[in-house]
Every structure is written in structure tokens, then in C-alpha cells.
Design goal:
heterotrimer; A mainly alpha (150); B alpha+beta (209); C alpha/beta (187); A: c-terminal domain of poly(a) binding protein; 2 domains; C: 187 residues; alpha/beta; Glutaredoxin; two-stranded parallel sheet
Amino acid sequence: MVFTSAALFVRARGPDEFWRKRRVFKLAAHFHGRPRNVYTFAVRAVHRALVYATKGRKLKKLDMAELWKTRVSASAEQYGVSFDAFKNSLLKSNILLNKKMLADLAIWEPRSFEALAQLSRERAVVEGMPGIQERSVMNQVYGLKNLLKK
Amino acid sequence: MSFLLKNIVNLPRSGSINQLTSSFRCLSLTSQLSTRHNLNYKPPKIIAKPITPIIPQRSPSEDLKACDNIISKVNNVISEKEEGRLFAVIHLCGKQFKVTSGDIILVEGYWPPTIGDEVRLEKVLLVGGNDFTLIGRPIVDKNLVNVQATIIEKTLTHTKTHFKKKRRKQYMRINFQRSPNTMIRINSIDISGQIQANSLEKDDSTKIY
Amino acid sequence: MSNSHLFLKSGFPRAPLQNGVGRYICQLQRITLKFCKNNGSSRGMREFIEKQLIDFAKENPGTVVYVKPRRHRTPVIVAEYLNGDREWHNCRNLSKEEITQWITLMKTQNGSSSSLRLRKMWHTDMPSIQGPWTPFTLKNPASNLVIFPNEELSKPLDVEKSATEKLIELFREQRLSEGKLEENRGN
């Protein structure tokens, strides 16, 4: 480094500060306004973002579990079975598919899901579980097998 | 005072249908309504009424017959190789995946097999095709289904930053972590052999879960 | 770092060139070990080269191994992959075991993976075998022939009984029972 005056020598605090700030600015590159350009604001915003990212990794798992539960209960209710009765009766029949798989099957493999739903329904009726509904206007179930060609 | 309170509490509890009907009796509705009384009146269909537990009234022999019928149909499809593309739900390292041949799945964390290894995934919870589904309780018979896979990559994840901070408490911690990842290619899902009815009803009391 | 900064791309699991569908091909094409012959920071690297490098080269005939001595510089591993990726790793003051670990990692991966955040742990070209669910999957096909506006289908699905209707019903029940009573009395 070349210092033309004593004042500049005092001000220049070495290369460390430059790299330290650059590390923060790199993470703040996509922020808007002063948090992108001013170090004091940038470092605060970056810290907050990092905390969110750390917490978010855990929250994402919870969110996904909730989403799967919603999907499975919606698709079980098509067949007049509540989520709890559906899951419990599958468990009673020793079928250990998890919520993610049930949701996947309900969306992508509806025939397999229908098999599971009917199986759980019969089991739930035998066990006398609550939350089993008869076919009605609300849950108009014709079943896929009526639609398939013979 | 206390007994009065007790009565007040008891009142809403005892307020059953009997009381209501008796009060209606006192009202003595006009005869206009009674003239419209129709004997052929049917109550509106009750929507979504709960089912009382009933045991299905089919005889066990009929059930067995229907079961055999279905199984022979599926066996027919399998023996004539008309099952088409199959999918399977496999359980691997604590997670379940729905796979078909040609899929890629990732296992997170340490897992010993190395690249180029060909493995057979034995925990198959469900196998399905276009026309049938075999549901395992909890897993499908090992001799029945064959899921082959190849390990194609073992690597580390991107660097995850574990950053904790408490405001106004002078507390800040930062850690970096990269965990191993294994990429697996599913090569084939085959149903080998015939499905047997009695294999489904095998006594599994000796199994350890 | 945080999940969405500009220098960390996100993506989905892919394998280059359908790797593993027929057979597996090691994606590492070339590996270069750079080290110094007398500097202490390359001691582990020198040990690795003396004891394990020949074995490594024999075990991996598909990989070209270069060894490049250079004076007074930090030891470095550079791996080059079939897809054109190039991964550079600093090995300053690493022991032989640590270097072995890094080299195994470079051998087993398909490209430089450090810069990609995976969004899914699963990839398929065939998401559905039976055809995905649609809102019409479980509907009666007869509804295809209905002409709208349709009075029958425009009704709400679930109409609760009003209080008047309930009253009328109760009254009828009561009348029936009273009628029976009167009949009994008349008899």
C-alpha cells in the first residue's frame, strides 16, 4: 500500500476489513436499497437472512408434513373416510405407508389409492371407527372401477 | 344460595327433548298445518349419516372365491408379461420413495455402498401397475418383487450455514456443515413368480419389527 | 449461506448422460496433484504420492493422474469431470488420510456439487403410471351430457332443515302418537 499522507495511513485499516466486508456484501447482493450498499445495514440484513435460513430448514419439514396431511385427508374424504380413520385402519391392517407416500399416490396413482381407501374403509367399518360416512350428495363417489372399461 | 345455583346448573343439562316436546304441546299449533299432513310424506334424505358397525354379510367362502379370482387375473397378467411399466414404494434409510425404473433418488447422510455398486432394494411397501396394485403388510414378499438399483454418485451437499443470533445479548454462533449424499438410479422393477393366496395370510407372529 | 443469495444456484437431482441406466461410468477424467518437494505444508501430499498414488491409479484405469511438483507453493488437488466441471481443492497442511478422503470424494462425485442447492431428493421422468388425479376423476360421466344452466345441479349440495320444518316434523310425530292414543281410548 502506498500512503501519500499520515491521515491516509491512519484511515487504511489493512486488507482484512475489505475482505470481511466483501463477504457480507456478497450475501447482500440481491437486497434492495441501502441494505445492499451500506455495510451497517447490509450486515444486519444478512444476519437476519441467515437466521431465517437456519430456522427455515426445520420449518420446511413441518410445512411439508402439514401439506401432506391436508392432501391425504382431502383425498380420503372423497371416499367418505376421515383422515384419522383412514390412517388408523391402514395401521391396523399393517400397511405402513407414510403421509408423503399416501399424498403422492392420491395425486399420481389414483387407482392404487382407491384400493387403499376401500381397504381402509372396510377395516374401519369392522372396527367401528368414527368418521365413516355413507355415500351422499356431498361426497359423490362412483369409484373408478365403474368408469373403467370392462 | 348454593342450591339455587345447583338448580341453575342442572337446568340446561336436564333440558332434553322431552321438555321441548311438552312445551310444543302447550303451543297447540293451528289445524292448518295438520290438514296438510300427508301420509306419503318422506323425510328428506339425511346427508352423510354415520355408519353403524356392520360385519359384511358375505360368507367367507364367497370372499375366498372372489380373492382367488382376482389373484388369478393378476397372475395371468404377470405371466403374459402384460403388466407394463411398474412403480414401487420403497423404504430406504428411513424414508419412503415412489419409484419407477429410470428414477433417481437421493439418500441423505452416511450410507456405506459406493459408486458402481448394484443393490437390490428389499423393503418394498407397494408395487403397482396400470391394472393392479400389490400392497405389502408391511412389505411385499421378497421373492415376489425385485427392485434393482445402481449407486451413481456419492458427494457432499452444498455448505449449509447454521447461524444463530440473539439480539441485544451479544450472542452469535456460526457453523458450517456439509453432509454426505448418495445418488441412486433405479434400474428395474420386476415381479418374478406368481402371487399365492396363502402367502398373503401367512402367520407373521414370528416377525420382529 | 442463506438459501437465495446470488452465488448459490438451486436445482434438481440429475445424472449426466443417463449414467447408471445401462452401466455406471466414473465421471472423473483427470486429476492433478500439485505439491512442493520440500515444503512442510505438502508433507501429507508427498506421503500420499509415495504410498497410495500407484494403487489409486491402478484401481481407476479410467482416470488420468498428473503429478506436478512446484517450488514453495501450497499443495492442491484439481479434478476435471466428463461434463467439463473443474473442482479445485486446497490441501495445505492436510495429512495423508485427509487427502485420501478428499480424493475419494472427487472420484465418487459427478461434477462439482458444492455450488448447487438441491430442491428435491427425487427425480422421475414418469411421474404417473395410472394417470394423475383430476377434479373429474371420481365424477359421474353422466354429468358430461348435462346442459347448463341446470336447475337440479344449481341447488346447494347441503341444505339444512329450517326451524319451521323441524317444528312441523315434531308436530306430526306428536299428532300421530296422539291419534293412536285417541284410537285406544275410543276402543
